[in-house]
Amino acid sequence: MKALINACIYDFQNFKENQYILFDSEIKEVGNMDEFPGAEEIYDCSKALVMPGLVNCHTHIYSTFSRGMNIHFNPVTFQDILDQLWWKLDSQLDKNDVYYSGVIYGVECVRNGVTSIIDHHASGLDIKGTLNELKKVSAIK
Predict the structure, then answer these.
(1) For residues 134 and 119, is the Cβ–Cβ distance under 8 A?
(2) I want to staple 41 with a disulfide (CB 3.0 to 4.6 A). Which of 2, 20, 106, 141 is the partner?
(3) Dihedral sign, CA of 40, 44, 49, 55?
(4) CA 8 to chain centre
(5) What is the pLDDT of residues 44-68, one digit of tens each?
(6) How buried is 57 (Cβ within 10 angstroms: 0-12 exposed, 13-18 middle, 19+ buried)?
(7) From its phi and psi, is residue 136 left (phi > 0), alpha (psi between -120 and 50) or beta?
């Protein structure tokens, strides 16, 4: 069993200080440090805030590349945005683009507490195997 100790815990409803969390592949017990039963592996979370991971239920990983993009387009409708921006970008993605957009997006998610995503994937130039590129990214440690 592993443990996070001396943690401040916020579960989006309650804030508790001086807590422990016992876990292996899932959380087994949470309690006050006065009642900590011990564990084989201990991680001291003093001065750290522990929260559940956030979930982004709709994202487009490749949109990482669109930030700061300065292109001429004049959308009036949502369909115009798709035609003039997103589908043009989608059509140019290859496996290398998919891999590196996944790396960048994954790091940004973890830094901001997002631990699960649902991606609407597209890669016009190289469709076969691109999901495997994203799978490679999820295996990076």
Answers:
(1) yes
(2) 2
(3) negative
(4) 22
(5) 999 889 988 899 999 888 888 888 8
(6) exposed
(7) alpha
Q: Among the residues of the chain, which ranges form H helices?
A: 78-81, 87-91, 95-111, 130-138
Amino acid at 80: D
Packing angle, helices 130-138 and 95-111, rounded to 10: 30
Radius of gyration of the chain (CA): 21
The angle at the Cα of 29, spanning 115 to 112, to the nearest 5 degrees, equals 20
Q: Residue 89, SS3?
A: helix
104, two tokens: 């960048």
- To the question of pTM greater than 0.85 for the whole model, the response is no
| Residues facing residue 15 across a β-bridge | 10
CB of 44 closer than 8 Å to CB of 26: no
